[in-house]
């Protein structure tokens, strides 16, 4: 059994070498830069938290780990970026008529493929530490982000879906888990993660996000609940108003996430009522509280759903 020291240990993966840069013309204005994670790392140091965390070394995800989520064509296109001219582009999609679309939200350089593999591998390494009992939980401070990446699509600054790669690793024979819970509470819907797991009954995907009026990526309606044997394993809480804060997020966890997560492991037939419940609940939040504060997030992430191993993903 794990010692009390290991049980209380919280892991940290931080890759300070993820030098995946926007082109010089966009470096001053693009929001997905190395500073996005280095600022958080410095804040942890300023709060004197770094010495209380167990460092977990990042590593590159293997081809086999990535192929458990993404198509071979997707991974080949990612590798090809190492030799491509750095640029700003739209999304990339595989298949007939695929390739890069028009747009300027995605960027890549010679380090992009390596950075994406290290981000995904870092989350896998953190997960493996939990499964071995070396840490009780962890925080992966990595980039580029991943939750918009589908099995055959790179989009929204995302190249590999890091959480999905780690979830599949945990569900593999080596990982040994039978089911996982992914909680995505970024302001944007995790469309890539939902698409990857929407027919996988071993994964419960729960997302809270802004929705409607053209807000990116335009997915995440409460009526999207998964399909086939996984019907009921996708739960979307679409907030249609700005300014949702601590009270709304904590209430969503207590009123929706925990009851559903606790019921599913022992249920042979998934509950069918939650789409209307989630939609009505989200739309009833007519008077937003103050915005989410960093002081309340530890309280929200402490809530545990029995019967599931899982991740919370702010992006």
Q: If you had to describe this structure to a student in words, what would you say it looks like?
A:
Strands 11-10-9-12 form a four-stranded parallel sheet, with helices on both faces. The protein has a three-stranded parallel sheet with strand order 2-1-7, with helices on both faces. A three-stranded antiparallel sheet has the order 5-4-8, with no helix packed on it. 32% of the residues lie in helices and 16% in strands. The relative contact order is 0.12. It contains ten helices and twelve strands. Helix 7 (191-197) links the parallel strand 9 (180-184) and strand 10 (203-210). Mean pLDDT is 85; it is low at 1-6, 269-273 and 294-303.
Order of helices and strands: HEHEHHEEEEHEEHEHEEHHHE
Strand order of the largest sheet: 11-10-9-12
Number of strands: 12
Shape: globular
Structural class: alpha/beta
The main sheet comes to:
4 strands, parallel
Please count the helical segments: 10
Oligomer: single chain
Segments where pLDDT lies below 50 for 5+ residues? 1-6, 269-273, 294-303
**Average predicted local confidence, pLDDT:** 85
Strand content: 15-25%
Helix content: 25-40%
Give the N-terminus to C-terminus distance in angstroms: 33 Å
Mind telling me the C-alpha Rg? Answer: 19 Å
């Amino acid at each position: 059994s794990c010692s009390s020291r290991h049980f209380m240990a919280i892991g940290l993966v931080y890759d300070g070498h993820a030098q995946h840069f926007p082109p010089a013309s966009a470096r001053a204005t693009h929001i997905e830069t190395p500073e996005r994670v280095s600022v958080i790392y410095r804040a942890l140091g300023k709060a004197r938290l770094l010495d209380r965390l167990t460092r977990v070394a990042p590593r590159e995800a293997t081809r086999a780990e990535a192929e458990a989520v993404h198509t071979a064509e997707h991974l080949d296109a990612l590798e090809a970026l190492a030799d491509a001219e750095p640029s700003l582009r739209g999304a990339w999609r595989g298949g007939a008529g695929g390739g890069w679309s028009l747009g300027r939200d995605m960027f890549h350089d010679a380090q992009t493929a390596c950075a994406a593999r290290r981000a995904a591998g870092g989350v896998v390494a953190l997960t493996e530490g939990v499964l071995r009992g070396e840490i009780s939980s962890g925080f992966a401070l990595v980039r580029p982000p991943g939750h918009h990446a589908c099995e055959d699509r790179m989009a929204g600054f995302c190249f590999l879906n890091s959480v999905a790669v780690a979830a599949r690793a945990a569900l593999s024979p080596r990982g040994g888990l039978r089911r996982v819970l992914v909680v995505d509470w970024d302001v944007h819907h995790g469309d890539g993660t939902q698409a990857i797991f929407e027919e996988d009954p071993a994964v419960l995907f729960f997302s809270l996000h802004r929705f409607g009026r053209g807000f990116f990526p335009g997915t995440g309606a409460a009526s999207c609940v998964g399909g086939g044997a996984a019907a009921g394993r996708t739960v979307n809480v679409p907030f249609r108003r700005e300014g949702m804060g601590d009270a709304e997020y904590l209430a969503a966890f207590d009123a929706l996430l925990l009851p559903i997560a606790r019921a599913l492991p022992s249920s042979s037939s998934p509950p069918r009522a939650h789409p209307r419940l989630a939609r009505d609940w989200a739309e009833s939040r007519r008077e937003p509280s103050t915005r989410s504060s960093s002081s309340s997030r530890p309280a929200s992430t402490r809530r545990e759903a029995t019967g599931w191993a899982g991740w919370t993903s702010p992006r």
